[in-house]
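Q: Fold this one first, please.
A: Sequence and structure below.
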Amino acid sequence: MKIAWKLLLATCVVPVLIWAMGIRIAEIAEESLLESIKSAASVEVRSVREQIDRLITNRTANWRAYSRNSQVNEALAESNSRYAAMPDPAAYVLEQDRIWAANETAASRRLVEEVMGNQLSRDLRATLEVLNEVSGYPVFGEVFVTNAHGANIAQTGLTSDFRQDDEEWWQRAASEGIYIGDAGLDESAGIFSIEICPRIDDQDGTMLGVMKAVMNIRNVVDIVDSHAAHLAPDTELALLTADAKIIRIGNTHTEPLADGSRFLNGVDRTEIAPVAAAFGIDPRTGREKLSAYAVSEAGGGAGSLGWIVVQQFDGETILAPIRHLKRQIVIVSLGAALAGLVILLWIALPLGRRIGRLNEATDAVARGEWQTRIETSGNDEITKLSERFNLMTGQLSAAARELTVAKERAEDALSLIHISEPTRL
């Protein structure tokens, strides 16, 4: 390998090492930044999830406690006893449901007055009034109690049906002990809400009936908004249902139950962890997003709902400093390589030409061209080598001349000898 190529290789090694080391440092910095962001975001979404779970757990506990008071138990026991004495309680419930649905008839008005005018209904309404006064808004849209046959026995407002045992919430509560329905618009109450439905049992564990409380999720929205208030402008905090429908995007007008799958791009929803983070692409903008999320765990107030709290960052914005650093490293490395190449060309090309002239002169001497000389300039090792080469060739040239002279003299002497020998003869 020629010296120039060796010098070129040596010159490129340093920029390559700078580039490799710089890129690795940038990657470590990026990993550290992402871990820091993921950790902080995970704490945030976990806090939101826990607050929502606590809220729903407390609301559920309050109604469970209410359902155990003597007034509720006595009203249900009396109603169940009366229904049990009927020849066909199920047929009676169906008939009452038909009357209930026939609005503005005398029979319908009497049935509504019977259910809504009793002492338990008045107590339920009084309880809601206190809650609303303390909270400053309707905390519960409606609350009603059914007996063991699914018939309404007390309620705070007019429901669309009298019979409830054909509803999923009633059946789930009766079989599981508690049912919490997913977020949705309650048509009877006219609010965006969830359903809290505890089963009511007597002291022996026998089912007396089921209560349904339609909880306004305004408190849930307030929790999301309060946490979103201190986030950066390009960061979103969202609460999603288990099937990725939007319940709320913090401090943003939100279309109820719109598709929120963009918040979970990059997340394997079949194996979603309680708290984790993932990168994905926003299908609306094509920009990279980093999402940290927390899922309601079993046992929490919203545990059966599987709600997902997501904090989403603009990945390109948070990684911009690191990516800028990477570009700078590449530019510096290329600049160093270019500078090294220029310096190499400034040094190596003249050096290569001088070594080439020395090589040509050596070949010339090998052919017997003793007068070969190399032009010298400068004061480096090549110059000194060239001067010694010139000295050597000068000495060789002088020696060659002396040999030539000696040869000529020897030839002259031989000629004289040959001339003189015939004369003697």
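Q: Good. Now the second chain.
A: Here it is, same layout.
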Amino acid sequence: MRIVYFLIILAITIPAQGRKWTDLTGTYSVEAEFVNVVGDQVILRKKDGQQLKLLLSQLSKIDQDYVRAQAKGKLGKQSLTQAMQANSKLEFTQTPLRDVVASLQSVHNLPVYLDAPSLDEFGVSTDTPVTFKSNGQTLGQSLDVIGKPIKLTWLIEYDVVYITTLEKADSMLQARIYQLKDPMAAVRVQKHITRKIRPYSWEAVAGPAATAVHGKYLIVSQQRKTHEEISQLKQDLIPIAKPLLKTKASTFSKALEQRTALTFRDDPLRSVLKTLEEQTQKAGFPGKYRIDIKALDEIGLLDSTPVTVNVKGLPLRSYLGLVLDQLSLTFIQVGNDILVTTLEAAEDKLITTSYDISGIVLQPGTADNLISILTRIIAPDTWEEVGGAGSITFVAPAHLKISQVREVHEKIARLLNTLQTLK
């Protein structure tokens, strides 16, 4: 009866609106706007406002791919975290890890990326067998249980659920802000966190993570799972719900927001970048992508190096980020072009920017504290005080002059913009 009902609905013809949807047989179609996907049902809205509920499996392959891309697009808009907090129904028996990821992508409509290069570096095969049956856990908790025996974790980065090693995750720490219920207890709270929660990971014992106090706020740079533990300290802390704010977008950044459905499977780097160039040009950025052949040659990397990103429905910035992350590369903008280069070469081309901190530094002498926060929370091993290339200087009356690579500037701008909004 459900199939018959589906076919009857699709047999109705209406004026063109939204997009054309077709069933698997290609016999029936309807013009409607995509609203949402819930479980195995796709919700559409016709021009007259009537909603249709159709089985995803009854739609054409093209429409199914479109729905999955749209679903991932919606997840990318701040609800991917919520999806990971929903109860899961997972069951795997000696299933290869890569197939577990494929199942999460297809069955749960989740954009999941397996960081195969990092796994390979630490001897974890994507063929590693996984046996797991969920028992009331959330999807995120389930992934934690699956990853624990093989020392893997996950985080939300590049608009995907990014599965990687614990070591790699330490290089991708996330800065979050918490409000102290009692600012006078800041030192006590800091000591409790750094001594009781993942104690080996903090800067005091040469770890990458750090805490810093700014007025009545505690800023913490840590892995996702550690932040979850810190958030449970409800007697002392109130997590700031909103994410770190995005900065004003350039023409290139705006073009990179365009969502598309790309798949790269062992494609040469040069052809992958050519595809991304074509897509960003269609989105309004006229520049070309160039490869710094000399810099890549110095680290033994070729422009024919294979790249694999098997996740659909992402913004172009996510595809670019995942491609560069996979090869430990970065990019800098040179005029109207994008130069893909090595991390080492980028340090020879630092960008100097002046940041207005008048809305943050409210008292004389507190600029030094803000500088300490930035250099300890954001890329702490890249500043000149510890032998890095980056520098930061206070310029009266209320500016910071910072020389850093592009990625670090982006993190600094987001953190400063967020602090501007806090009172």
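Q: Anything worth noting on the second one?
A: The chain is about 35% helix and 25% strand.
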